[in-house]
Structure formats: structure tokens, C-alpha cells
Amino acid sequence: MANCPLDAELSGETLGAGSQVGHVPLGDEHTYWFATQRAPRGQAAPDGELSHLRQHFASWADPIPTLLATTDPDQVLRNDLYDRATARCWARGPVVIAGDAAHPMRPHLGQGGCQGLEDAAVLGALAVQGPDLAAAFARFATVRRRRVMAIVRESQLIGRVVNLRPPVLGATAMRASVLVPEFALTRHLASIAARGAFAPTG
What we know:
Helices cover 40% and strands 12% of the residues. With 202 residues, it is α+β, with helices and mostly antiparallel strands. The model has no long low-confidence stretch (mean pLDDT 87).
């Protein structure tokens, strides 16, 4: 978390070859951010993670250098990212799984936690419709799988593009992304975050 504000217009993600930075305003004085970099697992920066990130992203466009410059080193957590397959079965009798337990996804759309919240809302709405929880759980698995799996696949695709090898291919793909019309991108992202996602229909 950086100790500086962020214009809501700059909220989003900045992509580069093998790296990515996301940034979202938190009130009027702080900004949440994350960064990814393709690197060997278990690696640790000898001079500290924040120092490494400041060097790695020094030439990136604002607000990234500013966010890193205004972050307390104690606020930085480093974690390796691992892919895990989607669970084959989400519901069986009186047992149901949701969120990352059912459908882990890469962070490239920022939807891991969001989809867990959607799961909870839909599951709750279905559970109060009648006394048969097993039926509600089975319906939850059917309804949610259609929506969530599309987001899982898109997150995987973005991750593959960001991490293309050799890095020049990833850089070329990132530059080509500016060819996508802004209205089309905005409309697509709005469909992912649509209020209708919380409706247990289908």
C-alpha cells in the first residue's frame, strides 16, 4: 500500500514483458498496488523486495515509480504464484466448495477474490430458496461454473501473453494491445464486473 493518492482514471493494470503492475485507489490518501515478475520460485531479492521493484520498474510510466517510492518496505509482501487446476466437482450432497477452492485463477484480471464474493452472494441467495441444501449446492455449481470458467480462461490467456518467451514477443504483444479500442475494452471489463453476476439465474 502506497502512501499517496491515485486518480481513479489511472486505476487498472500496466503490462510489460514478463511483468505486470496493478494499481487501485484506497480512499483519498492511499493506493493499493501489486506487481508480478517472472522469476525462479523461492527467490528473494538480496537488498529487499521493494528496492528490487524500484529498480526493475524505474523506467515504467507513472504512477508506478511514484507508488513504489511512497511505499513503506514493511508494507511489501512477496509470494510465489502457482497454477492449480479447477476442481472437477464443486458440490456433492451437503458439501460445497467455492472461491479459490473451486476455481483458482491467475491474478491478471484481478478477479480471484471478486469471484469468491460472487460465489458467496449467489450461494446465499440459492440456499434461502428452500430447505434442500444439496439441490441448492448443485444448482450453484451449475450456474457459477459457466461464468467463472470464462474468467479463469481469460486470466490464463493474459498470463501466457505477459510471459511469452523470448521476452521480445511479450513486449510486442503488450504494445499491440493499444490497438484495442478503449470503448470495447471498457465494455468487456464492465461485463466481468456487472451487477447481474450476483443473480442466481441460468
